[in-house]
Design a protein that fits this description.
199 residues; Maf protein; 7-stranded mixed beta sheet
Length: 199
């Protein structure tokens, strides 16, 4: 079975592919297809955006398509940057996004700097969504970035059980991360789906 993982983000692909390794499927990325202009993400939730992207790329490629939308929610900022995580602060490096967040949280006590990463996954067969999942991880926003692993907001997301940021967590990250949770649910769905196909 051929499945399209509809993202061009190398960091995400680097996390997703190992989580689906060993299944009797052929994983494809958008790089395996002629260029397709990315759809406008108009959803107000991660789940809406994931479903929009899954349907869009499934229609354009004819492939069973997995799409995800993920981001950071900071409670003291009313849930921002949320679905706008990648575009927060404009088209700027993450180091500048970190500075902007810290500027807004400067007067917020450490204990109130609560936040979470959210990942929503959707699978589309044509225009039909056949599976959805959600994963979250709770933590705090660190006062300054730490660690060189991971990507995106990982250097400022402090995970208390590890006493480190996710950028410092190394291989432990996938065992607890929002994306790890959501894609392990997807793996379970695919295992059942493939088993049904074989009967």
């Amino acid at each position: 079975m051929r499945i399209l993982v509809a993202t061009t983000n190398r960091g995400k692909l680097g996390e997703i592919f190992p989580l689906l390794a060993g299944l009797p499927i052929e994983l494809k990325t958008l790089a395996d297809y002629p260029p397709i202009a990315a759809p406008e993400e108009t959803g107000s939730t991660f789940a809406e955006n994931a479903s929009q992207k899954a349907r869009f790329y499934a229609r354009h490629t004819g492939a069973l398509t997995v799409a995800e939308d993920s981001g950071l929610e900071i409670d003291a900022l009313g849930g921002a940057p949320g679905v706008h995580s990648a575009r927060f602060g404009g088209d700027t490096p993450y180091s500048q996004k970190f500075e902007l967040i810290e500027e807004r949280l400067r007067r917020v006590p450490d204990a109130a700097r609560t936040a979470r990463f959210v990942c929503a996954v959707a699978v589309a067969d044509g225009d039909r969504i056949v599976f959805e999942a959600r994963g979250t991880i709770e933590g705090l926003i660190a006062a300054e970035p730490r660690g060189t692993g991971g990507f995106g907001y990982d250097p400022i997301f402090y995970y208390p059980p590890f006493a480190s940021t996710l950028a410092e967590a190394g291989e432990r990250k996938s065992s607890v991360s929002h994306r790890g949770q959501a894609f392990r649910q997807l793996r379970g769905f695919l295992e059942q789906f493939l088993e049904g196909q074989g009967k």
